[in-house]
Design goal:
The structure holds 6 protein chains of 6 kinds. Chain C is mostly helical. Chain C has helices spanning about 10-35, 40-65, 70-95, 110-140. The termini of chain F are far apart. Classes of the chains: A mainly alpha, B mainly alpha, C mainly alpha, D mainly alpha, E mainly alpha, F mainly alpha. Chains B and F meet through α1, α2 and α3 of B and α1, α3, α4 and α5 of F.
């Protein structure tokens, strides 16, 4: 049955898509973008199917090459994987629709390599998420990273330097991860995640394990842009082409977080990283500082994309905070926030891209009258921003509710305060935009409606609607996440 | 204790030292190509770690011989083959970025570039 | 220091015209020999690329591109990967898992099928590595005016 | 005895690494780096990983060096003084 | 208690949401757009009113939609208290709509579509707050109310307006955060956020200091009720167009705050917990302080709308005071005052707006002799002012009467004195206006006339109703009696 | 300033890593877990299951063939990247 091969088809379709793109590009350049959309759509559909299968029939294990793990590479899909897969593939799919016009303007004449890299990035990220083998994770991380460096470097004049710095940081991160994997391998002899999790308890107390954990945590934190290691993120997101900022904001950092969760809670056991060696609680404190620092820095920005980038730093803090608190509720909130932040940030970056596409404006104080000029786009922006603030009934509210509740459950009042305070800070930096966009324009100025093209508007609106729908029916994803969380945490 | 460490595990100390040198090259140097060389050294040090961990004293290279023999562990070699290719790919990407930056700014000095791009 | 130095030096050209076929042959040998001795797709690909790079240095980029144009390189790279992934898909078609060479009905035993599978895969790697290395070299060595 | 050779080679590698980071001339640095790669390959042969050593010799000392030289040719040869 | 499932509560909310949508659709055709507003208001009131017989017969109407978060559904339950608030809000919306049509058109205001759109959303959420069956649902509508009233507050878009808007948001969003925290805490400790007669906190073993902390955060959370020291957003928000002030002050926002505070005191904490911990009495004194100080502030204002704003702050505290006294009479008085104050204050604001539209005057000192030119408006104003002071036969008298009785029942003489003193202060800050308007000669010849009919009729009607309530208070009292019965009987 | 900071962080980095060394298996230790758990199967099965005597090739292309596919894709990605970054239009 072909459905048995779903996990690998997800990736192989991407590979084939990427390998074909140069050939398609030689025939007709214009076909590259629809081709990328088609491939990512297939990946999205497969990941939906996978999620459905995992929920109904339980975890999936696929042996590549037919070799039984730990000798061969295994694709292991459980609810967490499938959930993140759907998010990543969904974002890749919708941004690919959006990107046709946006990238057509910002990176003209390079459709072929651009969409090849686009598909490779998408495939790389999906590969990271779906795999059950820790070295395989590294390989796919590199595919995705290289594609990401290249895509970022296609932005404006400063983007090359941003990309270079990202590459340096990314290589440090990848090398650290490789070293962590090496330490684990040297001490256990295995590379399979499930197998490792059986072997690692024998190493408890060994300094090697500590160093390995430290390496993996630092490496993944760089990829996730956790607070003190976030320095590459603002530059990269500001200068990258808008569609790419949207894509990366919604997916790549989330994949990093996924990997962090996977390594900490599946490979190494929760009880070890929480109680014996309080790695996770250290991370929560960093995350808490990051939440506030990110918000404050976002307030100081006037470039809309840069502001959104700093806001990402803060939002990533939420996720790590939830995961690090490691009780049922906070963890659910944290994982739910992966979904909600993807929806919100991708939507917002797409709006920023649409504004830049139509007017070229990046400074938020020059956005006067935009509410009349691009009513639907800005309407979507309002929805996204309200969700960031955490106004019900949006998905951002649902995840903040769970995070705050989880912090309370953990008895940590500082974090409760941080979470709630940060939503006020978020309100501050978004409200500046509202004021400029909707108010202070007088009747005398006639503003012509000049909406973004349909292929950009459609994904934007879709994300706004999704934010609301997911907010109204948040118990659905929460129930799904809970199944996984209760399976992992005692 | 320390002597024992040095005599049985000197490979690790060496790899860590190399890694630190590479790390310094990445964060302490301002020239982009120097940074890339540092990056390569950084990566190579990890390869050294893997390969030395695979070594078995008295073993032979992992190519099957007619008569039974002790082989060194082949798996890290495979991983490192992969990683070397990744390293050279990263180097190529980094160099192309550096060239592109040089074309735009006329310099490879990080500080100067940051100044120019303000 | 000039990039991709186009040399008119007769010695270099003569040397290259002798060396290049030898290097290419050696590359092919490494590719095939990969199964029994050290070597394989990567090494072979790199060696083959080195051969062409030598050719390029001796005869100039223009000449080199007449043999392997940039577009052709891209096609070769894609083809190489296509061979690799295609072998994997073939395994699925014959009822195995991805890249499970043993089920492909070539050779008498699964082990033999694996051997052929591995050779195919190495060929794919070799093609891709060679063409990409060469392509990178073309790009980096390409001087301002496209000389 | 073998230990001494081993250690000497490893020390040489470290010296080469430091030198290639420290010299101001990028081309020199590249050559030193090629030497570093080559020494690395030799060490790996000594550690019985012929495949890796082979790859390293081809990729590290070969392709990497070619790319670096080509890149330096396109840009500047000397590291700028502050 | 018998409960009936019915779609009516949801329908009542949807009507104005749908109306808002239609307003957007017809933004280019003002007549249809405003017609939609009116129509939606009437239908909405019809739906709310249709629930009266059911509730009067002692039943509850329930509508459970779906779980937004696990175990936290959007759920509506119409009890007597909620229905009272719902009735007031939907009924007054009709008047306000007419009035704002007149106001906006006469002044040729910009962005009228946005105005009516936000108005409709705000009303939906006010009704949503009224009918919420749990804190969670209430919070959702609470935040929507905050967001949807913001564009109304900054409607004129001048720099001062934007500044006032920022202050408005700062206070209300911050309080929203506190409310959210309290809700999460309640949910954390009790596992539910449902309103229940007698409260849900009792017997859950929550330590007393946490209980007090919770109460404080809850009360900060209902800062929409504008008690001191969290009142200062309200006078700032006076920068809004007058219909907005009328809506904010008489109907939607502040009443929602008071309503929430009452719900929390009576239905979350419950009478027992409140009296055992002594929180009720503390609360009573805080609001008593507010009553007096706000009245003093009111005396010092020259801007009529600002004076009305401080009067509102003081009057709202009556409601909380009544509830905090925890006796049947007190609760009755408090709830009754929601109704009374709504009608009286909306009359006063309508009058203030009429002055602005007809004469352009906002300052009290400029209103000498205005009664000659605008007699009807001024009469309505006087009725409202008399009611505020608690004069018999006006609505204000009824509620004050109950409050006085309650304060004697719990033998808190200071509170009694506060109530009396406040009546005097009311007289002190309203009567000079009336006297000057009727008897003082204007500085120069006045040339304006009454405001347009669209505005005049609503304000006369609301004035009339506030007298009718004063004379025949039995219908609303019966409704409140059911609410009180449930509360006391439930304990 | 920057140089001293860099050197300082390097020293810290070095020290942390050296701390972890003490428990690592000695160089060439045949009893090290890395050489015990998974590896022997490759040595034994290489010829039987894959038909090639070079164990590294067997693992590279067969047991962990999928990694190698990924790695070839990395090269491909790098090629495309270099192309998109510095290739100029040919005349």
């Amino acid at each position: 049955m072909i459905t048995d091969h779903l996990p690998i088809l997800l990736i192989v379709i991407g590979f084939f898509g990427a390998f074909f793109t140069p050939i398609i590009g030689m025939i007709r350049k214009e076909l590259c973008s629809p081709w990328a959309t088609f491939i990512t759509m297939l990946q999205f559909l497969i990941s939906l199917l996978l999620l459905y299968n995992v929920i109904t029939a339980g975890n999936i294990s696929y042996w590549l090459g037919g070799w039984q793990p730990p000798w061969g590479i295994e694709y292991a899909v459980d609810i967490l994987n499938a959930f993140v897969l759907v998010i990543v593939a969904g974002v890749c799919f919708s941004v690919s629709i959006y990107s046709r016009k946006s990238l057509g303007l910002e990176v003209p004449g390079k459709e072929m390599p651009l969409y090849t890299l686009y598909i490779l990035l998408s495939t790389g990220m999906l590969g990271i998420v779906v795999t059950g083998d820790i070295f395989n994770l590294y390989v796919f991380l590199e595919i995705a990273s290289l594609a990401a460096y290249a895509l970022i470097a296609l932005g404006d004049r400063q983007s090359r330097m941003a990309s270079f710095n990202y590459m340096i940081m990314g290589t440090i991160s990848a090398s650290f991860i490789l070293m962590g994997i090496g330490y684990l391998y040297v001490m256990t002899g295995s590379l399979n995640m499930a197998d490792l999790s059986r072997l690692i308890p024998a190493l408890y107390g060994s300094p090697v394990l500590l160093v390995a954990i430290a390496m993996l945590v630092v490496g993944l934190s760089i990829k996730t842009a956790l607070f003190p290691l976030h320095t590459w993120l603002p530059d990269a997101y500001t200068h990258a082409p808008s569609a790419i900022s949207a894509l990366l904001a919604g997916t790549f950092t989330k994949v990093g977080i996924y990997a962090l969760i996977r390594v900490m809670f599946t490979v190494i056991s929760p009880s070890y990283v929480i109680e014996t060696v309080p790695v996770m609680s250290m991370l929560t404190w960093l995350a808490a500082i990051g939440i506030l620092a990110g918000s404050v820095l976002a307030i100081a920005q006037y470039d809309i994309k840069r502001m959104l980038a700093y806001s990402s730093v803060s939002q990533i803090g939420y996720i790590i905070l939830g995961v690090g608190l490691a009780n049922n509720i906070a963890m659910t909130g944290g994982i739910l926030h992966i979904l909600s932040h993807s929806l919100m940030k991708v939507g917002l970056f797409m709006v920023a891209g649409a504004i830049i596409y139509r007017t070229g404006i990046k400074n938020i104080y020059q956005l006067k009258g935009m509410g009349k000029k691009m009513p639907y786009t800005m309407g979507a922006f309002v929805v996204g921003a309200l969700s960031m603030i955490g106004i019900p009934p949006t998905i951002g509210f649902a995840s903040k509710f769970y995070l705050a509740w989880g912090a309370l459950e953990a008895g940590n009042w500082v974090f409760v305060v941080v979470i709630l305070l940060s939503s006020l800070l978020t309100a501050v930096y978004f409200w500046r935009i509202f004021e400029n966009v909707y108010f202070g324009v007088h009747e005398t100025e006639e503003i012509k409606k000049d909406e973004a093209p349909l292929s950009m508007l459609l994904p934007i609106i879709a994300f706004a609607v999704l934010i609301l729908l997911a907010g109204l029916f948040a118990s659905l994803p929460i129930e799904v996440i809970k199944i996984w969380v209760t399976g992992v945490l005692p | 204790m320390v002597l024992e460490l040095i005599f049985t595990k000197y490979n690790y100390i060496i790899y860590i030292t190399l890694m630190t040198i590479g790390f310094y090259g990445m964060i302490g140097k301002r020239n982009l190509i120097k940074k890339l060389i540092g990056m390569s050294i950084f990566q190579y040090s990890i390869f050294l770690f893997y390969v030395s961990a695979a070594d078995v004293s008295g073993g032979t290279a992992p190519i099957l011989l007619k008569e039974p023999a002790v082989y060194v562990n082949p798996l890290p070699h495979v991983l490192i083959l992969t990683a070397i290719v990744v390293a050279v790919s990263t180097l190529a990407v980094g160099l192309s970025l550096a060239i592109r930056i040089y074309r735009e700014f006329g310099t490879l000095d990080e500080d100067k570039i940051l100044e120019l791009s303000k | 220091m000039k990039a991709a130095p186009v040399s008119n030096d007769i010695i270099l050209r003569t040397g290259a015209s002798i060396m290049v076929p030898v290097i290419l042959l050696w590359g092919l040998y490494v590719l095939i020999h990969g199964a029994i001795g050290p070597g394989g797709g990567f090494q072979a690909g790199v060696i083959l690329a080195a051969g062409f790079i030598l050719y390029t240095t001796a005869f100039g980029l223009k000449e080199a591109k007449k043999i392997l144009s940039v577009k052709l390189l891209m096609v070769i790279a894609s083809t190489g990967l296509f061979i690799y992934a295609g072998v994997g898909m073939l395994a699925i078609i014959f009822g195995g898992n991805f890249l499970e060479y043993g089920v492909i009905p070539i050779g008498r035993t699964p082990a033999e099928a694996s051997k052929y599978g591995i050779e195919m895969v190495e060929l794919g790697i070799g093609l891709t590595v060679m063409s990409i290395m060469l392509s990178i070299f073309y790009d980096i060595a390409l001087k301002e005016k496209g000389e | 005895m073998i230990l001494i050779v081993d250690l000497l080679m490893l020390l040489l590698v470290i010296v080469l690494a430091i030198a290639s980071i420290m010299v101001k001339d990028l081309l020199e640095s590249t050559v030193l780096f090629a030497g570093f790669s080559f020494m690395m390959a030799v060490i790996w042969v000594e550690m019985n990983s012929v495949d890796v050593a082979f790859t390293e010799a081809a990729v590290g000392a070969g392709v990497s060096t070619i790319l670096l030289v080509a890149a330096i040719a396109c840009t500047k040869r000397y590291e700028e003084e502050k | 208690m018998e409960t009936i499932t019915s779609f009516n509560p949801g329908l009542a909310i949807l009507v104005s949401l749908f109306g808002a949508l239609m307003i957007l659709v017809f933004s280019k055709r003002p007549n249809i757009r405003d017609g939609v507003s009116v129509l939606a208001g009437i239908i909405k009131f019809g739906i709310v009113a249709s629930m009266i017989p059911v509730v009067m017969s002692g039943k509850l109407i329930e509508l459970k939609l779906w779980d937004v978060l696990p175990n936290l559904p959007i759920m509506f339950r119409v009890d007597a208290f909620g229905l009272l608030f719902g009735l007031i809000a939907s009924f007054l919306w009709i008047f306000t709509t007419f009035y704002s049509i007149g106001y906006m058109r006469t002044l040729k205001e910009h962005a009228q579509t946005r105005f009516f759109f936000c108005f409709a959303i705000a009303l939906s959420s006010a009704i949503g707050i009224a009918f919420s069956a749990n804190l969670f649902t209430l919070f959702i509508f609470f935040e929507i109310l905050t967001i949807s009233t913001y564009p109304l507050v900054v409607h004129i878009e001048t720099p001062e307006a934007m500044k006032a808007g920022r202050k408005y948001l700062l206070y209300l969003l911050t309080s929203g955060v506190f409310l959210l925290f309290s809700i999460i805490a309640v949910y954390h400790y009790t596992g539910t956020t449902d309103f229940a007669f007698g409260g849900i906190i009792a017997g859950k073993g929550i330590p007393k200091n946490i209980l007090i902390l919770l109460f404080v955060t809850f009360m900060i959370g209902s800062a929409k009720a504008a008690f001191m020291p969290l009142h200062s957003w309200l006078p700032s928000a006076m920068i809004a167009p007058t219909p907005v002030s009328a809506l904010l002050h008489a109907v939607a926002v502040v009443k929602a705050g008071v309503f929430t505070a009452t719900r929390i005191i009576l239905y979350i904490f419950g009478i027992d917990v409140m009296s055992e911990t002594g929180l009720a009495l503390a609360m009573a004194y805080v609001v008593a302080f507010t009553i007096i100080v706000a009245s003093l502030f009111a005396l010092m204002q020259d801007n009529l709308k600002k004076r009305l704003a401080y009067s509102t702050i003081s009057q709202l505290s009556y409601i909380i005071l009544g509830v905090a006294m925890l006796t049947p009479a007190g609760i009755t008085g408090g709830m009754m005052h929601i109704l009374n104050h709504a009608f009286m204050k909306i009359t006063l604001f309508f009058c203030a707006g009429a002055f602005i539209v007809a004469s352009g005057k906002e300052k009290i000192s400029e209103m000498n002799g205005i009664a000659k030119q605008m007699p009807f408006t001024m009469i309505a104003f006087s009725i409202g002012a008399l009611g505020m002071a608690g004069t018999p036969i006006t609505a204000g008298f009824i509620s004050k009467w109950y409050l006085l009785i309650a304060s004697m029942e719990i033998s808190q003489i200071p509170l009694l004195l506060v109530l009396l003193a406040s009546s005097l202060l009311n007289v002190a800050y309203f009567f000079p206006i009336i006297i000057n308007a009727f008897f003082k000669k204007p500085d120069r010849v006045l040339s304006y006339k009454e405001a347009p009919l669209f505005m005049l009729v609503p304000l006369l009607l609301t004035a009339l109703i506030s007298i009718i309530i004063g004379i025949m208070p039995d219908k609303p009292l019966a409704l409140i009696a059911i609410a009180v019965q449930n509360l006391i009987g439930g304990t | 300033m920057r140089r001293y900071l860099a050197i300082l962080s390097c020293i810290i980095f070095w020290a942390i890593l050296v701390y972890g060394v003490s428990d690592l298996p000695a160089l060439g230790d045949p009893e090290a877990p890395a050489n015990k758990h998974v590896a022997p199967r490759y040595v034994e099965g290489s010829y039987k299951e894959s038909g090639v005597p070079n164990i590294v090739t067997a693992i590279l292309a067969n047991y962990r063939g999928y990694d190698t596919l990924g790695e070839t894709t990395v090269i491909f990605t790098a090629g495309i990247t270099v192309m998109v970054l510095i290739r100029r239009k040919e005349k």
